[in-house]
User: Which sequence fits this backbone?
């Protein structure tokens, strides 16, 4: 049997994908039954590292997603449009889809999965989160007996690289970002990474799978790492923490989830604390499995293509054994309930003001004896119980005060901060971070 | 639809399995379509923590595996016989099988998978390695596009617990084993764990999946942790290592694998070095994914039952969508080429003498100036190049000498040791360990 694959995109991931497809030795024998039928790109003139026969390449992507010969469309072009429209059109033409596009899935997952269900085809997306690290398929299949309670991930390699270097070198965010850009670890426009948007896309996808509901991306709280200073890294270190950009999804109650991305103080003994450089890791806590963690490279041509091609093979295996021969009343093939994303309702996400967490905050204040007392009283007035208040030093003639709270309601903490902000003795709230 | 499950065994894992099956809330909805049809045990009189209706329990296990109503047989009784015969009989009666029995699969995998292929049914075994940690399914599905080069695991919780305590407390093997037995972390008869046999079963299974061939268990080299002394842990620590019982499978060439279990010096910076206590982790290195690691609890009722029930659900999902409706010429359902273990040939395992590795060795010798020179010359004569030789101290009036080699052929190293053993100046080769 031969399964025909149409690729949309031949950039980093597309090239990695073709390289695996053309080199099946010592890989799964099913690879030999895959045929690259067409590859869609923007420009036919671009120099390519791969030696592809010219008649495979086309700029007519519409022709790929409607080609009656193609079984599986692989979307590795990225971006929102035309990626979204092409995926929907491929599904309408009853093609299975494999995609690495977290941005499109996080935003248009509802339309895309509804269209897939109606067409009786699969949309697989292992590459969209954690690069090659298996996490989508484990959530769907290997962990399906569990009640998932928490998913916590380091899912953005660029920010983890920057934070790791800030940690080891003691440098400031701006200079290390500039260096990371030079070295190719950060994009020229770093916004999606450093402002946490990419991580937010990914945790929205993971939360949707873990809690079997749809997630409105606009409800995912998202805070990046631009405001982290060398001082915060150093104080955190002294307190026994490292700072990581965490993407967190948590079942708060039967009705509500927390879904959020923000830099977080992580205890050094926590399994995520030692995940450094561009590595990603996803920690899942479920009942009755307890904690499991998945670790590896979250990006790059090889790891990402590993996930893309594995998804293609999983679909080829289904096609081969004729799964989908059982049909529903309207003739649509019945989809595997573990592999399809058939949930329809939206999860309710709790507002951040209701979050209960520990906080770390750093204040610059006038250097006189009553200040710590004033801060303490203000927090107390708002039911914010403190674990420690330390005058850590003097900076620019101001006293630097570091506060760590016990578990408190974020809403209460914010009200106290509002009041502190207005105190004439407080020059600056230099940083506010949550503690895991 | 309802899928009928027959359980063989209601001990630790069986009880955990029933607990999940009876509590589907917030778990995958497919759970609600599973029905426990029969549960086989040894004794009907035994007090059970579960309140199971009496007509479910039976001591007639044969009747379960031949019951025409049962779709899926779950073998969680353990041991070699009658487990093997019951599994084979279940397969002959075209029942899908889920098992947690690493001992039986490592020994009888060839018979069992051949019988499953002939019957056109699946044998799933996620629980057999790493408890709840997804590793079998990722190897079969999520990583299937890769050429796997290495699998290295900490796959035995008991030995990892003992070694971690030896590391943190500085105690000796014997006393910590006794304490571990008291605390329930080690069995009364600890042989299978501390002599590495359980880890050997597991790496044989992982190697078979990673390298798509069968493995003769008798060819798996296996060395336990009884001989590790507090002195070795302390010297390793000074050299920047921790000692872990590693199970290793490696592609040495197109023709040959290494498959081995032994205590190993692991650099403290290695991802496996910080896997402590009863936790397990499996590190897989593949092309093009690079390194990925899976971490979690490798045993216990909850984690193991998570894997067992997930396997049951995976089979139920297949049954539900009617996969297997495409049949071969003889009418047997065609099995999913990713999920079935259809490889027939045996892998060739290289003899240990051909292994190229670094070694650590500790000698007790007479305390006079020429001894280090004699050792060095002897190693040199056998092409064993040394990284360091240190007289580490005096023990019982003897000089304690610690040697670390560069990468050397194990055969050469052993010949040198034979010669050293016979030197009158050398009282004792106190320990020999490999270095990762
Ligand atoms: N790179 C990674 O490490 C990584 C990791 C995980 C997920 N992903 C995801 O994978 C996807 C692809 O990423 P990438 O890094 O491979 O991107 P890339 O290197 O920029 O490649 C994009 C490819 O798509 C083609 N393309 C883009 N827009 C097109 C259009 N409108 N019409 C026709 N062709 C178009 C480009 O054609 P030309 O070649 O002619 O310009 C190029 O071949 C993205 O969704 C990304 O988020 C990437
Ligand atoms: N425990 C773990 O953490 C763990 C982790 C991974 C894998 N596993 C594997 O899971 C399997 C089960 O382990 P377990 O710890 O659950 O064992 P267990 O607690 O000893 O339970 C064994 C069960 O099987 C029944 N049984 C045993 N031999 C029988 C026979 N000949 N006829 C009828 N019933 C028989 C026993 O019946 P009675 O109740 O009447 O005595 C008991 O219910 C083993 O293969 C083990 O290697 C266990």
Assistant:
């Amino acid at each position: 049997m031969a399964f025909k694959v149409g690729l949309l995109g031949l950039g980093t991931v597309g090239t990695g994908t073709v390289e695996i497809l053309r080199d099946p030795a010592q890989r799964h024998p099913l690879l030999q039954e895959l045929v690259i039928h067409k590859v869609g790109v923007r420009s036919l003139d671009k120099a390519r590292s791969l030696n592809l026969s010219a008649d495979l390449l086309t700029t007519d992507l519409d022709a790929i997603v409607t080609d009656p010969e193609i079984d599986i469309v692989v979307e590795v072009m990225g971006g929102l449009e035309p990626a979204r429209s092409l995926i929907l059109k491929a599904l309408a033409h009853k093609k299975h889809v494999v995609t690495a596009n977290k941005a499109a899935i996080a935003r248009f997952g509802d339309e895309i999965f509804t269209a897939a269900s109606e067409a009786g085809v699969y949309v697989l997306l292992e590459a969209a989160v954690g690069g090659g690290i298996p996490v989508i398929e484990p959530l769907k299949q290997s962990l399906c007996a569990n009640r998932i309670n928490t998913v916590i991930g380091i899912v953005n390699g660029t920010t983890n690289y920057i934070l790791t270097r800030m940690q080891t070198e003691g440098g400031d965010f701006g200079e290390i970002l500039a260096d990371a850009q030079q070295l190719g670890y950060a994009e020229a426009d770093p916004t999606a990474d450093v402002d946490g948007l990419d991580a937010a896309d990914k945790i929205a996808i993971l939360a949707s799978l873990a809690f079997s509901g749809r997630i409105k991306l606009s409800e995912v709280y998202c805070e990046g790492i631009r405001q982290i200073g060398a001082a915060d890294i150093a104080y955190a270190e002294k307190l026994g923490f490292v700072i990581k950009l965490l993407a967190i999804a948590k079942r708060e109650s039967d009705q509500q989830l927390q879904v959020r991305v923000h830099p977080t103080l992580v205890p050094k003994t926590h399994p995520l604390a030692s995940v450094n450089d561009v590595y990603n890791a996803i920690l899942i806590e479920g009942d009755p499995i307890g904690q499991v963690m998945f670790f590896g490279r979250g990006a790059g041509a090889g790891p990402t293509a590993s996930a893309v091609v594995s998804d293609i093979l999983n679909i080829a295996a289904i096609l081969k054994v004729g799964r989908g021969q059982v049909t529903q009343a309207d003739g649509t093939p019945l989809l595997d309930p573990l592999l399809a994303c058939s949930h329809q309702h939206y999860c309710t996400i709790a507002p951040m003001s209701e979050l209960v967490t520990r906080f770390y905050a750093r204040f610059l204040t006038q250097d006189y004896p009553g200040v710590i007392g004033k801060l303490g009283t203000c927090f107390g007035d708002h039911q914010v119980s403190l674990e420690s208040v330390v005058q850590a030093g003097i900076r620019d003639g101001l006293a630097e005060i570091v506060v760590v709270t016990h578990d408190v309601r974020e809403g209460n903490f914010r009200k106290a901060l509002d009041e502190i902000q207005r105190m004439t003795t407080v020059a600056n709230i230099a940083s506010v971070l949550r503690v895991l």
